[in-house]
Amino acid sequence: MTDLADKKSPGAEPQTMTTGAILDGKATAAEVRGEVAALSADLARSGRAPGLTVVLVGDDPASQVYVGAKDRAATAAGFEVHTVRLPATASQEEVMGTVRSLNEDDRVDGILVQLPLPKGLDSDAVIESIDPTKDVDGLTSSSVAKLVSGREGLLPCTPAGCIEILDRHGVDLSGKDVVVIGRSMLVGKPFAQLALARNATVTICHSRTRDLAAHCRSADVIVAAVGVPKLVQGGWVKPGAVVLDVGINRGDDGKLVGDVDFAAASAVASHITPVPGGIGPMTIAMLLANTLRASAARQGVHLEGRIPGPTL
pLDDT by residue (tens digit) across 8-26? Predict the structure, then answer.
């Protein structure tokens, strides 16, 4: 990715060294999960507990880990949790038929299809088959349309987790210059919409961006979500900037690393998320909040204003 290479600006001033405050995703997510659990208990007393069903196709090891973490978190929050496991050989119709049956199940408030699906399956078609009112991942075209048009709906979990951790640490995006590295529908594009809703000025960068480093150096907030280990170097970070590292990569030593050179960037950033322990836990916390929101709406219980997570 030579077009992402750092090119040092002539005459650049030395950076002022600071110590960045760690945005602890584990601790923040624990707060969110506690709030969700309390509201879930209230909902169960007046009606029934939220119901979440995860559809897992195949035996991808990473997916197995993620689903297990979601199952444990949802169970701890008092949800009714189920995982439907289908073999990697499942057909498109079998997967979509499973989703359609969950759409019709009144005790299921949230449906999550664990991605990626095995090769040969059309992920977009499967996602589109989810009832939008049960789309707790916020990925259907209906959910995306609501986000873009500024209407309330179920927000994508990872971008929502990014906003929530900023909110809970007093980082105001209004008037800030935000650079998002990555244009996926999972993180980059929806985060840009959420930041715009907070009155930020947003630049989306990607693999064809010229002089990515220069864009980053001008940013008040950097959101790295491109899947390139340690792409964002310390010299790319403006002193006092906020850095959200959404990337999860496996290093040569087997350890998880982000898209940001954490050691170098934390020396100049005002706030920074670690990997692991940053945005990952917040993603699961927002999944629980979305499921609670979907359940309350389907049961006709007004909880808006009490459910954690950003709104438009």
Answer: 333 334 334 456 799 999 9
- 295 marked ligand binding residue: no
Name 253's Cβ contacts closer than 8 Å, sequence gap at least 6: none
CB-CB neighbours of 5 under 10 Å: 10
Report how far residue 272's alpha carbon sits from residue 275's, in angstroms, rounded to the nearest whole number. Answer: 10
**pLDDT of residue 148 exceeding 70:** yes
182 labeled binding residue: yes
Is position 40 annotated in a ligand binding site? no
Structure confidence by residue, pLDDT tens digits, 197-244: 999 999 999 999 999 999 999 999 999 999 999 999 999 999 999 999
Beta strands across the sheet bearing 51-57: 80-86, 51-57, 110-113
pTM of the model: 0.92
Out of 114, 135, 238, 261, the active site residue is: 114
Q: Is 20 annotated as a binding residue?
A: no
Domains located in the chain, CATH noted: 48-131 (3.40.50.10860), 157-280 (3.40.50.720)
- 36, HSE (Cβ side, Cα atoms, 13 Å): 29
Confirm if 202 and 178 have CB atoms less than 8 A apart.
yes
Per the CB < 8 A criterion, the answer to whether 260 and 227 are in contact is no
Instruction: Pick the catalytic residue from 137, 220, 259, 261.
Output: 137
285 neighbors 36 (Cβ within 8 angstroms): yes
Q: Is 137 a catalytic residue?
A: yes
